[in-house]
Structure formats: C-alpha cells, structure tokens
Write a structure and sequence with these properties.
Length: about 400
C-alpha cells in the first residue's frame, strides 16, 4: 500500500486547506480504490522474523498492532494534522479520551494547571475530581480575563487548558494572549477546539501548543461515531503522548476513523453553512428572548475578539428564557422539528437544557459560577432550511406563552 500519487509531506504541505481536507493522508492499496479503505484488523503478519524485530526496535516503519497503529487510523491522523497545520496528530476513542490523555500524558504529582471555568462537564469532572487524586493542583479562573491567567501562574504551573468558544456559555478566550503568557513561563497551552473546528479557528497558528478535539462533533458532523484527536509538535505527540496512549489504550476503531475521515471531506462546507444558519437563527431570537449568548452578534461583548481569531462564530449558541427549568423543559417539549438532544455539531438541529443534562453532574454552585442558569438552552444549528427552524421556534415560544 502506498500514499496516493506523490503524497509526500513536502507536496501535501503546499496544498490549500480544502485540498488537504479531501486528499490529505490518503493511502491507496494495490486495488486502486478511490475511497479510503477500512482495515478492520487488530494484528499484522510478517514475511520473516526479522521484519517485526526491526519494527519493534524502531529501525523500520510499518504496522505492528492496532493499539499502536492501523492504516485507516493513520490516514485520519495525517489528514487532521495537515488540516490543523500541526506536525503530528494522534486520535483517540472519544473526545474525553483525547482531553484526559492530553492532560495525563504530561502532568505529574506536584504539578499545577490553570483551567478556564466554562468547560464541557466531564472535562471539569477530570480537573475537579480526578487530577487532585493524583496530586495535581488545578486553579479555576474566568478564562475571558487575560490577567487572571497571568495571576494564576505559579513556579510549578505546567499547563493552561481552555475551550473557546466554551460549552455552553460561549465564553471566548484570547488564544494569542493566553498562549503568549504560557510561552513566557514554559507552560503548555492546550485548546479544546471542538466548538469551532479547524474550518473556523486554528489555535496552533495563534500560538497554542496543543489542540484537542471531540471529533464526535463537527468533524464527523453527522452524529454517527465518537472520536477524539490531539495535535501538536512531533516531539510532543511521539515523545510524550504516544507512550501514554499505546500503553493505556484509548484507541480509535478503524471503522470510526473511516467515518470521521469521510466527514472531514465536507467539514469546511458544513462548518461555514451551519455557522451562517446559526447567525440567522440568533438574529431571529434577538429581542424575543431576555438573554442571547452568541458571540457572532455585534452586541456580544467579545465580538471583536471573535472577529480577530475566528472565521465565523460557529453553529452552536445558548440563550435564556424566563421561567427557569420548568419553562425551559416546556419549550423543548413544544418543539416539533428541532430534536431534544445533548449532542452538537450534527447536520440535524439539536437543542438541550445544559443544567439538567451535560452540566447536571456539577454542583449547583459550580454551574452558577460558570453562568449555566436554569432557564438556559443550548442550540446546535444544522443544515435544514433556516425558515423551518425559525417557524418551529416561533410556534414553540408561542405555545409556552413567551
Ligand atoms: C463533546 C465534547 C467533548 C467530549 O467529547 P466525547 O466524544 O463526547 O467524549 C469535549 N469537549 C467539548 C467542548 C465537547 O463538546
């Protein structure tokens, strides 16, 4: 099996992002298939005894076992790295496997980490419950405040971690400014880029060291599989992440890798179309709901920062309605087209009540500090006709008397 015609790194790096998304990383077997093949195999056979000996010793390239590498999985890793502008990438079994691997592969007892308070619920469970059990101290700050990052730095700080836009409050973190503070103190800045994807935001170009993904979301884009990815320098991915990953085993299935590989071919189209649709839905809701958390609108306090670091504000946003949890649940029950689902980044428009789902495992006070109110709803806008979405929201708001 070989890479498609002439696919050396020096050629693929000349390709523009859209070309990388469609062709980057493709290998072709002797059958000459146009679509990438799925290699559902856990092991590999060798022509002679010396071949595996050389591969295990690192003296020859080639597959040894699918916990460490698999052709379909490696195609996905090469494609994501090219799209991200990263030297290397490793994929994981889920977004949370990616987040926890990005932390655990490089933090040790006695280290300190700084974390933005607005984050995916399970990520906060890892920083609030798991890391302290292993003697890793975490300081939680308001990620929107650049000075708060600088103030939180200690002599043993090893990592800055944040999402931007953050789930579900849509807080925006200034990637360039925070990465620069990190760099000055030899701190590794890790960005969870799930809400934007490389189509709308490229954190490594802005100075971040590591980008981590829930590829479950926009990368797959059609709500089919769970997957994760971590991108960074070749030294970090091969020297720090890989030993952790190959020995702890958060491996992605070749089938799931293939699904994401095909999803990436349309990522740019989907991310931009869904972001444009989300802007229209947000404009429709503006004035109809008491609070709208959409950084793509000029009225949002962080709109200028969004314009500086994102191509568009993305397809996911939150809003609040009067009447707390009861009204929020009634509003969800009144919808006829938009599905009640805590997933995001799908071609189908999905809506959820974060306080009783994605963020329900957090103590009420932590939710309140993060700004996740009882009347908050988070919507992920898909590819339906926007007029059908606003019609559905209109009838649901009317039905609950809002
Ligand atoms: C969904 C999500 C994750 C976790 O991804 P899974 O594939 O569900 O494990 C992490 N971070 C963010 C921002 C997410 O939206």
């Amino acid at each position: 099996m070989k890479r498609t015609t002439g696919q050396t790194r020096s050629i693929t790096e000349k390709w523009r992002p859209a070309t990388r998304a469609v062709r980057g990383g493709t290998w072709r077997s002797e059958q000459g298939e146009t679509s990438e093949a799925i290699y559902m195999t856990s092991g590999y056979c060798y022509e002679d005894a010396q071949t595996p000996a050389d591969r295990f010793a690192g003296a020859a390239r080639g597959m040894t076992y699918s916990r460490t590498q698999n052709p379909t999985v490696q195609m996905l890793e090469e494609r994501i790295a090219l799209m991200e502008g990263a030297e290397a990438c490793r994929v994981q079994a889920s977004g949370m496997a990616a987040m926890s691997a990005a932390m655990l592969c490089q933090l040790s007892a006695g280290d300190h980490m700084v974390m933005a308070q607005a984050a995916f619920g399970p990520t906060r469970w890892v920083t609030d419950n798991l890391l302290p059990r292993f003697g890793i101290e975490v300081t939680i700050i308001d990620g929107r405040d650049n000075d708060a990052w600088a103030r939180a730095v200690k002599s043993n700080t090893k990592m800055f971690f944040f999402e931007t836009p953050a789930n579900p409050t849509m807080d925006i973190v200034d990637i360039s400014a925070v990465s620069a503070i990190g760099r000055a103190h030899k701190i590794c800045t890790v960005v969870d880029n799930a809400f934007a994807s490389s189509a709308l935001q490229r954190p490594l170009d802005l100075g971040a060291d590591v980008v981590a993904y829930a590829a479950t979301k926009l990368m797959d884009g059609q709500g089919r599989v769970l997957a994760g990815a971590v991108c960074g320098t070749a030294d970090f991915i091969n020297g720090v992440l890989l030993p952790f990953q190959r020995n702890t085993g958060p491996t992605l299935s070749p089938f799931n890798a293939w699904v994401v590989l095909k999803g990436l071919e349309t990522l740019d189209l989907r991310a931009n179309a869904q972001a444009a649709a989300a802007l229209e839905v947000a404009q429709f809701l503006q004035g109809r709901v008491p609070r709208l958390l959409f950084p793509g609108l000029p009225s949002h306090p962080q709109h200028d920062l969004v314009k500086r670091q994102m191509k568009a504000a993305g397809s996911i946003f939150s809003f609040e309605i009067e009447g707390g949890r009861a009204a929020a649940h009634a509003m969800l029950d009144a919808l006829e087209l938009i599905d009640i689902s805590n997933n995001i980044g799908d071609t189908k428009t999905l809506i959820t009540h974060p306080a009783s789902t994605t963020h329900s495992s957090l103590p009420a006070q932590v939710r309140a500090d993060m700004g996740v109110s009882e009347g908050m709803l988070r919507i992920s806008v898909g590819l339906e006709d926007v007029r059908d979405l606003t019609d559905d929201l209109t009838q649901a708001l009317a039905k609950v008397g809002l």
